[in-house]
C-alpha cells in the first residue's frame, strides 16, 4: 500500500531549488502600431501545488531566507530559454527583486545571468516603487551598473501606488509601465496620466499599457499615450514561439542621470545664490519646504538632512511624521538618527566622518516639481551659508547624492546578524507574476 506524504515546508522548497523545478513562461510586449513584439517578459512559476503561483513561490523563498538563490535560478532559466530561442532584435523584460539586487554575489549589482545576456541582447530591468523606498542606495547602484552594461530600465506598476510617480525622477526610466487598473478603468486617474505623460515627454521615455485584453483597451491605451502594450489580447504567458515577426518599432533609450559624488550644497551652490543666515532663519526656510510637502497636490519624496540628531527639534520631527502620514515618502538623515524616528519616517544614520554632518538640506521632489533648501555651516561660526532652489532638475540632481548614501534598515540589520544579533526581517513579496 502506498501513502502520499506531505514534505515539511522547508524540505519541499529545498527540493524545488535543488531539482530546478521552476517553469519559465514568457508574455509578449508588442507595438500598438503593428501589434508585433518588441520583446518578451519572463515570469516564473513553481511546480503544481502550494508553490505554483509566483506570489507563493517568492514568499516561501523570503520566509526561509533563500530569495537570492531563487532569483538567480529564475535568471539562469529565463536567460537560457531566451538564448535557445535565438531571436535577435527582441528584448527580454525581467524583474528586479528589491531585497536581493545588492546580494547577487557579483560586482555588477545585477544577477550574473542577466549581466552575461546584456552583451548580446537587449535587456529591460523592471523595478517597482517599493524598490525605491525599501532599498534606495542599492537600487540606484544596480540601475547605474545595469545601464553601463546596456540594459534599459522600466518603472513598473504605475497607478497601483501613487508614490510610484515620485520615484520616476530618481529612476529616470526608459520605459514606464501603466498598471492594468489604469487601462481597464472606466475613468482613469487623470492626475496619474498627466504626470506620466509629462515625464515621458520631458525625457523621451516610452509608455507600456499592461492588461490589454480587448480592442477597446488598445484604444484606451493609445489615448493615454502608450505606444507599447502587454496583455491577453496579444498573448498569455507561455513558451516562446518558434517563429516571430519582429516589430519595426524600437525601444527608447533615455540618457541616464549622473549621480554626483557630492553633497546638495556642492550641487546647488554652483548655480543658486548663497547668503549668510542664522540657524533660526535657516529653520524658517526649511519649514517652508516642509509646509509645501504637507500640502503637495501629488505624491512626492521629502529628504531632510539635519546633520546630527542633536539638531532635530521635537516639533520638526512631528512635522515630518505628519507629512509622512499624508502619503509622502520622508527620509531623515543625520548622525545618530535611528532607523525609525517616528511614524512612517525612514531614518538614515550618517557616518561620523560624512561631510553631510556640516550641512543641512530639505529637498522635496515630485513627479514634475521640486523645491529645496541647502546650507553649509559658515566657517568658524554658528551661522550658515544657505540658498534655495525651485528648479526641478536641479533639486533632483541634489537629491540623488543623498539617496545614494542611504543604507537601508535591511542592510544594517543583516550586518547585525553577521555580528551575532538575531533579527527577523519582514520579507518583500511581488504579488504579480514575475
TrEMBL record:
Cross-referenced SMART domains: EAL
A Pfam family recorded for this sequence: EAL
InterPro entries: Cyclic-di-GMP_PDE-like (IPR050706), EAL_dom (IPR001633), EAL_sf (IPR035919)
CDD domains: EAL
PROSITE patterns, sorted: EAL
Occurrences of domain EAL (ranges): 6-251
PANTHER family reported for this sequence: CYCLIC DI-GMP PHOSPHODIESTERASE PDEF, SIGNALING PROTEIN
Name of the protein: EAL domain-containing protein
Organism expressing this protein natively: Asanoa siamensis
Organism lineage: Bacteria, Bacillati, Actinomycetota, Actinomycetes, Micromonosporales
Amino acid at each position: 500500500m502506498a501513502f502520499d506524504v506531505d514534505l515539511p515546508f522547508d524540505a519541499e522548497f529545498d527540493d524545488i531549488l535543488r531539482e530546478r523545478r521552476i517553469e519559465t513562461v514568457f508574455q509578449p510586449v508588442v507595438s500598438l502600431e503593428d501589434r508585433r513584439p518588441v520583446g518578451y517578459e519572463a515570469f516564473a512559476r513553481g511546480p503544481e501545488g502550494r508553490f505554483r503561483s509566483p506570489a507563493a513561490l517568492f514568499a516561501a523563498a523570503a520566509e526561509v531566507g533563500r530569495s537570492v538563490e531563487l532569483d538567480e535560478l529564475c535568471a539562469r532559466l529565463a536567460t537560457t530559454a531566451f538564448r535557445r530561442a535565438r531571436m535577435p532584435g527582441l528584448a527580454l523584460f525581467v524583474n528586479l527583486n528589491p531585497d536581493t539586487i545588492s546580494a547577487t554575489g557579483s560586482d555588477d549589482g545585477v544577477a550574473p545571468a542577466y549581466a552575461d545576456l546584456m552583451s548580446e541582447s537587449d535587456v529591460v530591468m523592471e523595478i517597482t516603487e517599493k524598490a525605491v523606498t525599501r532599498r534606495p542606495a542599492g537600487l540606484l547602484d544596480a540601475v547605474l551598473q545595469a545601464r553601463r552594461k546596456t540594459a534599459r530600465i522600466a518603472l513598473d506598476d504605475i497607478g497601483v501606488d501613487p508614490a510610484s510617480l515620485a520615484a520616476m525622477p530618481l529612476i529616470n526610466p526608459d520605459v514606464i509601465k501603466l498598471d492594468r487598473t489604469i487601462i481597464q478603468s472606466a475613468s482613469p486617474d487623470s492626475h496619474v496620466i498627466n504626470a506620466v505623460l509629462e515625464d515621458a515627454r520631458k525625457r523621451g521615455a516610452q509608455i507600456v499599457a499592461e492588461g490589454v485584453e480587448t480592442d477597446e483597451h488598445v484604444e484606451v491605451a493609445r489615448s493615454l499615450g502608450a505606444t507599447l502594450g502587454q496583455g491577453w489580447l496579444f498573448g498569455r504567458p507561455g513558451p516562446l514561439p518558434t517563429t516571430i515577426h519582429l516589430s519595426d518599432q524600437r525601444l527608447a533609450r533615455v540618457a541616464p542621470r549622473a549621480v554626483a559624488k557630492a553633497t546638495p550644497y556642492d550641487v546647488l551652490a554652483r548655480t543658486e545664490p548663497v547668503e549668510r543666515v542664522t540657524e533660526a532663519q535657516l529653520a524658517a526656510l526649511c519649514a517652508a519646504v516642509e509646509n509645501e510637502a504637507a500640502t503637495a497636490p501629488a505624491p512626492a519624496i521629502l529628504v531632510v538632512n539635519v546633520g546630527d540628531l542633536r539638531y532635530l527639534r521635537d516639533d520638526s520631527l512631528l512635522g515630518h511624521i505628519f507629512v509622512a502620514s499624508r502619503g509622502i515618502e520622508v527620509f531623515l538623515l543625520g548622525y545618530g538618527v535611528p532607523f525609525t524616528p517616528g511614524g512612517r519616517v525612514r531614518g538614515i544614520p550618517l557616518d561620523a566622518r560624512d561631510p553631510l554632518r556640516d550641512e543641512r538640506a530639505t529637498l522635496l521632489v515630485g513627479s514634475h516639481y521640486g523645491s529645496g533648501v541647502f546650507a553649509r555651516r559658515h566657517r568658524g561660526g554658528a551661522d550658515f551659508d544657505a540658498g534655495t532652489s525651485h528648479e526641478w532638475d536641479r533639486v533632483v540632481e541634489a537629491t540623488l547624492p543623498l539617496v545614494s548614501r542611504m543604507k537601508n534598515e535591511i542592510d544594517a540589520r543583516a550586518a547585525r546578524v553577521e555580528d551575532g544579533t538575531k533579527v527577523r526581517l519582514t520579507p518583500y513579496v511581488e504579488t504579480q507574476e514575475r
